[in-house]
Amino acid sequence: MNIHEYQAKAILREFGAPVAEGAPALAADEARQAASGLPGPVYVVKAQIHAGGRGKGKFKEASAGEKGGVRLARSLDEVETFAKEMLGSTLVTVQTGEAGKQVNRLYIEDGADIDKEFYLSLLIDRATSRVSFVVSTEGGTDIEAVAHATPEKIVTFSVDPATGVLPHHGRRVADALGLTGPLVKDAVSLTERLFSAFVAKDMELLEINPLIVTKDGRLRCLDAKISFDDNALYRHPDVVALRDKTEEDEKEIEASKYELAYIALDGTIGCMVNGAGLAMATMDIIKLYGENPANFLDVGGGATKEKVTAAFKIITADPKVKGILVNIFGGIMRCDVIAEGVIAAVRDVGLAVPLVVRLEGTNVDLGKEIISSSGLDVIPADDLDDAAQKIVAAVRGRS
Ligand code: ADP
Ligand code: MG
Question: So where does this one cross the membrane (predicted)?
């Protein structure tokens, strides 16, 4: 789960990390009000969307002006003008895709006098099974581009969970950023605070880009992005309360109600599969035959008829879907149960696109029998290869 910058900064503040003063705003007069509580004379009006690259982003509407989603204002009037321009407009950044995201919230923040911009993030490194730090002097820019062009400018190290974070980790951060004097101590303290926040809140990613040194020689987290581990949300009701559903894909929200692992993608073939590995393989083979999956969907090992029906509804509600591939391996789950679920779902929601079903495993013959005797227009497939070719052909035949 992701949250907005202003919410992430509130968490950082709670853990004692240095962030600027600021307040969120949903309307232009609130933005003015928020700014009037700040020291000034420079205020920053920041679009709150779940995507980065806002500063260099562009609004779709001409009425939103030429500037991007992070604007420096030099008076309260200017704050109000920018807020009016940005609210309700659609911001397109490198991370939003072409459709962009509508700006419904702003964050009004004290303007910082920036001397240097750095990059600092913490994430779970699957290779070492540890929390890793990623540090670079090249802040404020796209870190993927830095990793590509000048990988030597990125320093990474991980923290042993047995010892937790220690002062030497902070000195490593300071060293990587070329900090000297009192800033070294500040970096040690910041490193410890960020690590504590990361662990305490079960984060998956904590990214500060940029971390800055101000002209008066202080560290400050100028941007903050946090992703939380969904599997640990049950023990953080305070985090769940920060969820902004307007930022999430509706289909993904619906899927989470039924505990379906669903991720919307850009292709045309809707997939319903049991098991994450099989779902990945199904997506791969669709690509191999030249089409693209419209989603990743793992109905899980113990899927019931209700879950299968819900999954079917989610897939068919997606207007991009031109065909559906059901690929189920009946292990714990029996093929006849799946077949009944599929039939019930098709009867319930109707079927406007071709459907290929491939079943294998426990009670497979019974499952196939149920499907073939249902009288529904289902294309049966013998194996994964056959299934992928059939759905690709069916989708192409229609377009
Ligand atoms: P994004 O990463 O989405 O573009 P940031 O919060 O990183 O958004 O802001 C982009 C740039 O705007 C920063 O790299 C920094 O140069 C500038 N900026 C952001 N917040 C402030 C602030 N409070 N004061 C001064 N400049 C800021
Ligand atoms: Mg940023």
Answer: none
